[in-house]
Amino acid sequence: MPKPGGNREAVAKTKSSKTTPTFECGECGWQTVKWVGRCPECQSWGTVEEKGQTTARTTAAKNLTSAAKTISEVDSSQAEFRATSIGELDRVLGGGLVPGAVILMAGEPGVGKSTLLLQVASAVARSHKDAPVLYLTGEESSAQVKKRAERIDALADDLYLAAESDLGQALGQIEQLNPQLTIMDSVQTLSSAEVEGSAGGVTQIREVTASMIEAAKRKNMTTILVGHVTKDGNIAGPRMLEHLVDVVCQFEGDRHSRLRLLRAVKNRYGPTDDVGCFDLTEDGLTSLADPSGLFVSAMTDRVSGTCITITLEGRRPLTAEVQALVAESQASQPRRAVSGLDSPRVSMLLAVLQRRAKLATLMKSESYVATVGGAKITEPAADLAIALAVASAALEKPLPNRFLAFGEVGLAGEVRPVSGIRRRLQEASRLGFTHAIVPRGAAEEAPEGLKTREVGSLPEALDLLMK
């Protein structure tokens, strides 16, 4: 006879051993226990598919491929930097490319990512001739890449091109050529036939990234992956992509400006607070060791409404010029236009000038504030320069020559200290500036030859300059 409760034990055992199906969106990776026609995360239709959960556990390997070593036995020379001959890129990376590192280069379309990496591939192939360089393109043909290489003088004997969109074929190219550097342009165009989903989907990006990382670590090969960005400026694909790679670089620039900025937002081998500057021309990208001249006008005569400041991009001081124009208006609500600056912060500074500095004429005047050369300034350290430029334009009194100012301005009209005062003043002295207005306590770090005046409030700064 069956034991009492035997059927219930069998049913319970069946229920506990049954795996619960999981449904995952093929576009964004969102998961749920029930199928839905539309993903609530990315709002895509028909992308949610069933993915059965597995209960298998990975067991320990009996035969180890490589035994653990003491830290003193590890050869660190295999992870030394290798310069690329492109100074600004080496500066951002911390010294150059590291063998076995995987770098993700992201940026908007048309900013110059492919041009920069083609120059990098050519420079590495010319300077390090111990192994070839492989450039895999999934968006262009090999002939198109060569035409661009001819235009920017990026031809090299050890530079190999391959137009591949299949992951298996790309890995085969790597196995056959055994390169020292591989560039994949771009990771969203590569797909694997063994994985479901279209190219650029979450599943495909995971497989492509994992396979390229495995090949890079196994062959001690530097790999650079080009990534697309979304409308919000974020890197397209799952966040796991940024966690898997060793370095994440952002390539930024305005379509109407020649300046391009390269910054590392993640770097396992170097700093993340440095910025590389490039000049985009018809002949390619040129490193700018001193880009200050791009953000300062060439006018030599004193003109009201202009003030120069020193901003910090990471650890790098850059000179920028703020220009302001104040004109009478007959409208009930005068127009205020801002370019290259934070518009709400400029509006706040205009209100501070009206209330604390007694410039009541700004209330009924049109105000136009902009930077020179397409520079974008977001840090509060430029507040004092913006306020002085607007006051100079309103009072029609030009500021002195070879003069600059920096400091944060509060709603009470006080001038607050900012970070990096020593680097700002050293850069000002190097460029030949002779006078500066700074927050209280900053004059102690001024180099010789630069006269500084400390101010504690905006009215105090205006009294010094507008006498």
From TrEMBL:
Pfam families (alphabetical): AAA_25, ChlI, Zn_ribbon_LapB
| Gene Ontology biological-process entries | recombinational repair
Q: Which InterPro entries match?
A: AAA+_ATPase (IPR003593), DNA_repair_RadA (IPR004504), P-loop_NTPase (IPR027417), RecA_ATP-bd (IPR020588), Ribosomal_Su5_D2-typ_SF (IPR020568), Ribsml_uS5_D2-typ_fold_subgr (IPR014721), Rubredoxin_2 (IPR041166)
Cellular component per GO?
Answer: cytosol
Q: Which PROSITE patterns match?
A: RECA_2
Region of interest: Disordered? 1-20
Keyword Flavoprotein part of the UniProt annotation: no
Give the superkingdom in one word: Bacteria
- Entry text on domains: The middle region has homology to RecA with ATPase motifs including the RadA KNRFG motif, while the C-terminus is homologous to Lon protease.
Q: Which family does it belong to?
A: Belongs to the RecA family. RadA subfamily.
Protein name (database record): DNA repair protein RadA
Q: Which gene encodes it?
A: radA
